[in-house]
Design a protein that fits this description.
The structure holds two protein chains of two kinds. Chain A is mostly helical. Chain A has two domains: 100 residues, no CATH class; 82 residues, no CATH class. In chain A, helix 4 packs across helix 6, helix 5 packs antiparallel against helix 6 and helix 8 crosses helix 9. Chain A is globular, with a radius of gyration of 22 Å. Chain B is of the alpha/beta class. Chain B has eight helices and ten strands. Chain B has a six-stranded mixed sheet, sandwiched between helices. Chain B has a four-stranded antiparallel sheet with strand order 2-1-4-5. In chain B, helix 5 packs across helix 6. Chain B is globular and about 50 Å long. In chain B, 50% of the residues are buried. The interface between A and B is large, with 36 and 42 residues. Bound molecules: adenosine-5'-diphosphate and magnesium ion (MG). Magnesium ion binds next to helix 2 of chain B.
């Protein structure tokens, strides 16, 4: 399992600052929902494809993969609207959602996680007054992106180990026999991860102003 | 150059010639004794630690950079007590774990390599330069923007090592760095360890790794039962295990 992540390319889209791309994404969303017409939705989708495949030179497969993950959801929406509204509404709904999903994929594929995280940290900066440390929020997001595939892989390995001994991972029992060992591994791993963070100076950052413990002089 | 440094005094007091000292060290988890009566002075450039599973090797290794603070006694790194100067100690002693998956915390290779430098407040341009340099040294320069998840096991361990060495610690502790690797990758890591200019302490079951070491400690039941050159120490360790 891989998450949609950065695809390195030398392109103008890659060079646009993360904040700019996130802003463009927000503007696109507002426009698509404020003007729910077929030409606007179609133009939006076309624009996203031009930027993603043309300007940013992303592989079509990476966008196709994103589209595939939402295909049943889109199909369901289309059928629902075709039955209860009308065909044009169904088309607009599906096109604009697809445009947004692909636009988000283009932004993630052209922006390093660290840049994205920097924007999020900047947005969270006002929370400092409540004692929140924006850098910590950024680290949590980066770690989530890092460890989701690791967990998926460990879960696969547990399922394989059980299948090898004739177990079945299907049904409620399967969930239980996978989830329990996965949780155990997760807790063990979390302990090592916290040690690894410490070893690399995670607490080197001085705590928020005014709460720093005094330096103990010898 | 370091900004945001939080405890500059201990760093200034450090005396790099002193090495690592354990004075009357014992450690218990709860009321379970794990290490007892350790008095050691570790100054040799290459020190190996061997012992059976559960004998206390990892706890010993963790004492050396303050990940574990002993319940009794003192551990001093270049004269700095791990109990009172833990941040300064950790900047001086890098730590590489057995499972690289648990120590790579950022999604892509270059981002992870930069993590420790961010914590130290190294400015971005210098950070980029040092990351590029360390990735090149470990053959990861072609993978800078790749998801760490897609690296091979050996490459992941190299990245874990790069993420520690980029911080330029004076000493590096390895806790079974090759246990999860195949023969080829284990050899590669062994070579990398061999070439380090830092003082190195390695916990391992891979005895051939220790052949050229200066000193090997055998730990059994939480005590150092042998402390000698590799050949006699490993012979003693084998004899001890035969007797089980
Ligand atoms: N965090 C901990 N809490 C409680 N007991 C622990 C902890 N870490 C290790 N132990 C126990 O201490 C003993 C020594 O462990 P360890 O230092 O990991 O040995 P080794 O690395 O030689 O296998 C073992 O019996 C282990 O179960
Ligand atoms: Mg161990």
């Amino acid at each position: 399992m891989t998450l949609a992540l950065y695809v390195p390319r030398q392109s103008a889209v890659h060079r646009v600052p993360a904040g700019g791309k996130l802003l463009a994404l927000a503007v696109l969303a507002v426009v698509l929902f404020a003007v729910p017409t077929l030409p606007v939705a179609a133009a939006g989708l076309l624009g996203v494809l031009l930027v993603g495949l043309g300007a940013a030179r992303l592989p079509a497969a990476s966008l196709a993969r994103q589209a595939r993950t939402v295909r049943w959801w889109l199909a369901g929406l289309f059928v629902f609207h075709a039955l209860f509204s009308d065909l044009p509404t169904a088309a607009v709904t599906v096109l604009r959602l697809l445009a947004l999903v692909l636009a988000a994929a283009v932004v993630t594929a052209t922006t390093r996680v660290t840049e994205m995280v920097a924007v999020i940290e900047w947005l969270c900066a006002p929370l400092r007054v409540f004692g929140v440390r924006p850098a910590r929020i950024g680290l949590v997001i980066a770690m989530a992106l890092r460890f989701i595939p690791v967990l998926a892989e460990r879960a696969d390995r547990i399922r394989e180990a059980q299948a090898a001994r004739g177990g079945s991972a299907r049904g409620l029992r399967g969930v239980r026999t996978t989830v329990t060992p996965l949780l155990v591994q997760l807790l063990q791993m979390a302990h090592t991860i916290s040690e690894a963070l410490d070893a690399r100076g995670a607490d080197d950052e001085p705590p928020a102003r005014g709460r720093r413990s005094p330096v103990t002089a010898a | 150059m370091r900004f945001r440094r939080s405890d500059p005094e201990p760093e200034a007091r450090a005396d790099p010639t002193r090495g690592i000292e354990l004075r009357g060290v014992s450690h218990r988890y709860g009321d379970r004794p794990v290490l007892a009566d350790l008095d050691l002075h570790l100054t040799e450039p290459r020190i190996g630690i061997v012992g059976a599973n559960g004998s206390g090797k990892s706890t010993f290794a963790r004492l050396l950079n303050g990940l574990v603070v002993p319940t009794d006694g003192h551990v001093l790194v270049d004269g700095l007590d791990t109990r009172t100067s833990v941040r300064a100690v950790r900047r001086r002693v890098g730590f590489v774990f057995q499972d690289p998956d648990a120590q790579i915390v950022h999604p892509t290779v270059a981002e992870d390599a930069a993590y420790g430098l961010e914590n130290q407040g190294v400015p971005a341009p210098e950070r980029a330069e040092r990351v590029t340099e360390v990735l090149a040294r470990y053959g990861l320069d072609g993978h800078a923007d790749h998801p760490a998840h897609l690296l091979s096991g050996g490459q992941k361990q190299l990245l874990a090592i790069a993420g520690v060495l980029v911080m330029r610690p004076a000493r590096v502790v390895f806790d079974e760095p090759t246990t999860l690797l195949d023969l080829i990758n284990a050899r590669r890591i062994a070579r990398v360890i061999d070439e380090l200019e830092q003082q190195v302490v390695v916990v391992t079951h891979q005895l051939d790794l220790l052949e050229h070491f200066d000193r090997v400690l055998v730990i059994d039941g939480g005590r150092v039962v042998e402390d000698a050159a590799p050949r006699p120490a490993i012979a003693a360790y084998r004899a001890l295990m035969e007797g089980r």
